[in-house]
Design a protein that fits this description.
This protein has 313 residues and is of the alpha/beta class. The chain is built from 13 helices and nine strands. The strands form two sheets. A five-stranded mixed sheet has the order 5-4-3-7-8. A four-stranded parallel sheet has the order 2-1-6-9. A hairpin with a 2-residue loop joins β3 and β4. It starts with 7 loop residues before the first strand and ends in a 13-residue tail after the last helix. 34% of the residues are buried. It binds iron/sulfur cluster. Iron/sulfur cluster binds next to α2.
Length: 313
């Protein structure tokens, strides 16, 4: 059974069950409640952070001359500068972080579905967009996952988010203890199929980078370049075709031991996965159980087949 490092996750405080919402309430999301047990949580509430009370009057996002702002119609206060200053100070204060999970629809935290108005009174609908804090986070963190709980109801987005935060946490902890190129090569080996599903091009580039090692003096620079490429690869979005390509590679690795009926069945499973009729966990589990049956430690070591704690699936 794989052991997982705890991702460092910035979480909207209302999702962390703190009563900070405008009405003094919290948000109870079953997935977030489970996830909190597997992460180191850094809670944040930008609205309380800028001194708005609990409860508080509604604030809204508006757009003027292509610039987004935040306004509180009942008090006539424009809170844009305060919220931007809080966001930037909070971001600067963060040392290490593997992901953000924010509250959807919020004028501060929303990564999706926040109502944006054409006017500061919040009367004329403009579009659905993002909250101001989320915008600043997304501008700064281009290679770590930033999501909201609403988007994570989509099973594919949730799988991707979990895969990324647990892989980034693994790299963060592993890279601090790394002492030899052999350890780095073993790490790369463990992530081979995962990286293949995210970016075959970067997988090759990382392989070439490791091959440049000549002496101990090279380790630090290779490690730092490898870390950047690892994060870059994981920021890509694999589509169903990339997963199928990866599953076919693993199938190829095991195929000598399989009957033609088993292979045919697996191809049917992949077809159903491609058409959205089966989740990605099904082909993963089939390959894992075959690897157990054949005692294939190489396939069993692959992070791709065991990307995050199964209780979160
Ligand atoms: S959505 Fe963000 S700003 Fe609003 S209550 Fe939750 S943490 Fe605070």
């Amino acid at each position: 059974m794989r052991e997982f490092e705890k991702p460092i996750l910035v979480l909207s405080a209302c999702l962390d069950l703190q009563p900070v919402r405008y009405d003094g309430g919290t948000i109870k999301d079953e997935f977030v409640i489970k996830l909190r047990n597997y992460c180191e949580i850094l809670p944040v509430c930008p609205e309380v952070g800028i001194g708005l009370g609990i409860p508080r009057d509604r604030i809204i996002v508006y757009v003027k001359n292509n610039t987004y702002g935040v306004f509180q119609p009942t008090t006539g206060r424009d809170l844009t500068q305060e919220l931007l200053a809080f966001s930037n100070n909070f971001i600067k204060s963060l040392q290490e972080v593997d992901g953000f999970l924010l509250k959807s629809k919020s004028p501060s935290c929303g990564v999706s579905n926040t109502t944006v108005y054409k006017d500061t009174e919040g009367k004329e609908f403009y579009t659905k967009g993002k909250g101001l804090f989320a915008m600043e986070v997304l501008k700064t963190y281009t290679d770590i996952p930033v999501e909201d709980e609403g988007r994570l109801r989509n099973p594919q987005l949730r799988d991707l988010f979990l895969t990324r935060i647990f892989s980034l946490a693994h790299w963060r902890v592993f890279s601090k203890e790394l002492k030899t190129i052999t350890e780095l090569m073993n790490f790369h080996r463990t992530y081979k199929y995962m990286l293949l599903s995210f970016s075959p091009m970067l997988l090759k580039k990382m392989g070439r980078l490791l091959a440049q090692y000549r002496s101990k003096e090279d380790l630090e620079s290779i490690k730092s370049e490898y870390g950047l490429l690892f994060k870059k690869a994981l920021s890509k979005k694999p589509h169903a075709g990339s997963h199928i390509n990866t599953f076919m590679h693993i199938l190829g690795h095991l195929s000598d031991f399989l009957t033609s009926r088993e292979k045919k069945h697996f191809l049917e499973v992949l077809e159903k996965f491609k058409n959205g009729k089966l989740p990605i966990s099904v082909p993963r589990e089939i390959l894992r159980s075959w690897a157990y049956r054949f005692g294939d430690s190489y396939v069993l070591s692959q992070a791709y087949l065991d990307p995050y704690p199964e209780e979160l699936e």
